[in-house]
Amino acid sequence: MTDDLGAGQIYVPADSPMRPLWDAIRKLPCPMVKYPNVALQGEPRPEVGDIHPSQPWQPIGAKVDGSPDVSVNHIVPKVELLYLPRFLELSPEHMWEVIHGALNLQWLPTRVSRFNKGARHAEDMVGVDEGWKQQQIALQHHKRGELTEIINALADCAVH
């Protein structure tokens, strides 16, 4: 799949016809806030003191409550999903499931997630291990293809 969205941050302009949809999606309850302690991308949630491959020089810290300072991160940013072919043909329920499905999620140290919040492409991430970044570039490309296939299948099954 080619990436026709260009470099840099993807956003939905205020005057875009998709803006009301984007605003509604951003206001929906987000399961990431209290995400369960489950494996994502085949990896368990890191524990305090673990080393994450994104920053192997710095162990995972602890939040105030003692839990690991990690967060759930979208591999393909959710705003980019709006621009994938046929996404807008999905029902609101399927849109939500595609956006927040575990297929597109991974655990990241919170500091990595926050510092790179605006980076759309994995290659734009900073402050991370170069080898891990290369793996993320490949993972993001792969997930974009998988999500496009899922969106097509869901759109094909939609009752009109």
Shape: globular
List the domain count as a whole number. 1
Write the H/E string, N to C.
HEHHEHH
What is the spatial order of strands in the main beta sheet?
Answer: 1-2
Structural class: mainly alpha
Query: Average pLDDT value?
Result: 85
Number of helices: 5
Q: Helical proportion? A: 25-40%
Rg, nearest Å: 16 Å
Count all strands and give the number.
2
Low-confidence stretches: 1-8
CA(first)-CA(last) distance:
27 Å
Major sheet attributes: 2 strands, antiparallel
Strand portion: 5-15%
What is the subunit arrangement here?
single chain
Word description of this protein:
With 160 residues, the protein is mostly helical. It has one domain (19-44, 67-157). The protein has helices at residues 19-27, 78-81, 92-100, 110-115, 130-157, and strands at 70-74, 105-109. Strands 1-2 form a two-stranded antiparallel sheet. The protein is globular. 18% of the residues are buried. Mean pLDDT is 85; it is low at 1-8.
Task: Please name the defining characteristics of this protein.
160 residues; two-stranded antiparallel ribbon; 5 helices
Quick structural overview:
The chain is mainly alpha-helical.
Question: What's the helix and strand layout?
Answer:
Elements (H helix, E strand, L loop, with lengths): L18 H9 L42 E5 L3 H4 L10 H9 L4 E5 H6 L14 H28 L3
Antiparallel strand pairs: 1-2
